[in-house]
C-alpha cells in the first residue's frame, strides 16, 4: 500500500518533524509494522524528571490525553506525535516507536 520500508512525513506544528511510516495492520507487503510505544514514552518522561502536567504543558496537550496514551488506552494522533518533539527536543522520533518485522520473520509465526 505504501512503498518503501520507512516513509517520512512532514508535519508542521512549529517544527518540521520526521515521522515513521505507520503501516496499516495486516498490510502483507513485507514492510515492518511501526507501533507507538507507551513504555518508551514513560521511560523518557521518568528520565526527563518532568511530571505529566509539566510534559503536557510543554507539548501543548492535555494532561488527561497524555495520561491515556501513557497507559496505552488511546493511540496518539499525528498532532500528539508532532508535539513529542517539543516535549523531547533531543530525542529522535524513532525512539517512541517499536519496529516489528513482518509476520513471516517473527519467531513462532508460520
Tags for this model:
two-stranded antiparallel ribbon, disordered N terminus, 434 Repressor (Amino-terminal Domain), alpha+beta, 110 residues
Structural account:
The longest helix has 11 residues. The chain has a two-stranded antiparallel sheet. A two-stranded antiparallel sheet has the order 3-4. By secondary structure, the protein is α+β, with helices and mostly antiparallel strands. 18% of the residues are buried. Helix 2 packs across helix 4. The chain is 34% helix and 15% strand. A hairpin with a 3-residue loop joins strand 1 and strand 2. The protein contains four helices and four strands, in the order E-E-E-H-H-H-H-E. The protein has a single domain, classed as Orthogonal Bundle (434 Repressor (Amino-terminal Domain)), CATH 1.10.260.40.
Amino acid at each position: 500500500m505504501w512503498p518503501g520500508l520507512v516513509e517520512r512525513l512532514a508535519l508542521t506544528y512549529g517544527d518540521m518533524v520526521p515521522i515513521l511510516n505507520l503501516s496499516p495492520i495486516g498490510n502483507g507487503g513485507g514492510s515492518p509494522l511501526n507501533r507507538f510505544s507507551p513504555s518508551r514514552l514513560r521511560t523518557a518522561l521518568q528520565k526527563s524528571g518532568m511530571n505529566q502536567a509539566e510534559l503536557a504543558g510543554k507539548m501543548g496537550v492535555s494532561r488527561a490525553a497524555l495520561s491515556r496514551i501513557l497507559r496505552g488506552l488511546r493511540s496518539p494522533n499525528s498532532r500528539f506525535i508532532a508535539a513529542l518533539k517539543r516535549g523531547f527536543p533531543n530525542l529522535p522520533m524513532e525512539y517512541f516507536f517499536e519496529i516489528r518485522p513482518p509476520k513471516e520473520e517473527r519467531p513462532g509465526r508460520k
